[in-house]
Amino acid sequence: MERHRWLTVAIFACLIVFSVGRELRLNHKHSDDAISFNHTLAEILVEYASAAYISDLTELFTWTCTRCDDLTQGFEVIELIVDVQHCLQGYVGVAKSLNALIIAFRGTQENSIQNWIEDLYWKQLDLMYPGMPDSMVHHGFYYAYHNTTIRPAILTAVDRAREFYGNLDIIVTGHSMGGAMAAFCGLDLAVNYNSQNVQVMTFGQPRIGNAVFASYYSKIVPNTFRVTNGNDVVPHLPPFYSYFPKKTYHHFPREVWLYNVGFGSFVYQVEKVCDDSGEDPSCSRSVSGKSISDHLVYYDVELSSPGWRSCRFVMDPPLAASYGTSDPNGNQVFSRDPGISLIRLKEQLVLDGKGSGAI
C-alpha cells in the first residue's frame, strides 16, 4: 500500500514537471512571429475581467471593490461605461505595473445566462464585417460593441489616456460575451486607429465569426489568446460544423485550454497552448463542453456578479454628479481626468459621506 502511494506521488510529480511551463512558447509557422503565452499576465487579466461584473459603480470607479485588489492593486479607472439600455458595462484604466492601458468588458449577467446559451445554439452568421470580403460575423456581438454607447466612450478614453501617458500598450480583456466584445474592440483599435501595440486575452469567449473572419483577425491582431476552461459550454457556441467550412462559425487562434490532470486528491491544472487553426480538436473541442460551472470560474476567480441583479447599478450621488454624464436613454459614462489623483477622489468621497443611488 505504501509503495503504491509513493508510486502515485512520483507519477503525479512527473506530470507537473512536464506540464508546468508557466510561460509557454508558441509554435508558429514563422519563428519571427512567435508570441509567448504569459501565465502571470493571464492571472492578472482574469481579475480585471472579474471586476467588470461589479455593479457598485462607486467601488469600481474608485477601485475599492473586493475584486479590485490582489494582482490589480494600484489600477486607476479613467472611464466607466454603463449602457443600461442594452445591459452592457465596461471600463478603461491604466495599470502602471504593466505599463499598459486596460480595457475590460463585462459578460452576460448570470441570471440570464441559461437563456443566452440556449439562444446561441441557433445563431446564424448574419453580418458582413466591413472591409473584409467574405467575412461574416454574429451581428449581436458586433452591435454590442459597435452600435451602443460602449465604442465611442472607449475610444474617447483611449485618446485621453494617450494624451496624458503617451503611447502605452493596450490590453483588452473580457469574459463570455465580454470576451466577444473585447475581440471586436481589439480589432477596431488595430484597423481603424492604427494601434500597433494591441493585445487581446479573453476568457470563455464564444465564436464570433466564420473562418475567413478568423483568418483576417489572426493576421491583424496576432497577440491574441482565448483562454478556455475544462468543459465550459460557451466556447462551443455558436456551433462549429466541420462539414460546412465556409458557412460555419470558426474560432480565431490562439486557444489556451485549461484542464485538470491527476489521481484521486492530487489534481493539477494544465495550460495547453493549442495549434494555430483556432479549432484544435485536441483542446476544448476534445470534450463535450456542457458545463456552466466551468464557465463561471477561471484560475479560481469568479466571473459573475457578486449578487443576483437585473440591469440596475448603484453609484454614490456626489460622485455621479461630479464625474457622470447620461444620455436620454439613461446610459451612463463616468470619466476621470488622468491628472486627477485617485487618492484625492477617495478623500472627497469620505468628506461627502458615501451614499448610494440606483441607476
From TrEMBL:
<keyword id="KW-0732">Signal</keyword>
<dbReference type="Pfam" id="PF01764">
    <property type="entry name" value="Lipase_3"/>
</dbReference>
<protein>
    <recommendedName>
        <fullName>Fungal lipase-type domain-containing protein</fullName>
    </recommendedName>
</protein>
<dbReference type="GO" id="GO:0016787">
    <property type="term" value="F:hydrolase activity"/>
</dbReference>
<dbReference type="GO" id="GO:0006629">
    <property type="term" value="P:lipid metabolic process"/>
</dbReference>
<dbReference type="InterPro" id="IPR051218">
    <property type="entry name" value="Sec_MonoDiacylglyc_Lipase"/>
</dbReference>
<dbReference type="InterPro" id="IPR029058">
    <property type="entry name" value="AB_hydrolase_fold"/>
</dbReference>
<dbReference type="InterPro" id="IPR002921">
    <property type="entry name" value="Fungal_lipase-type"/>
</dbReference>
<feature type="signal peptide">
    <location>
        <begin position="1"/>
        <end position="21"/>
    </location>
</feature>
<feature type="domain" description="Fungal lipase-type">
    <location>
        <begin position="102"/>
        <end position="240"/>
    </location>
</feature>
<keyword id="KW-0378">Hydrolase</keyword>
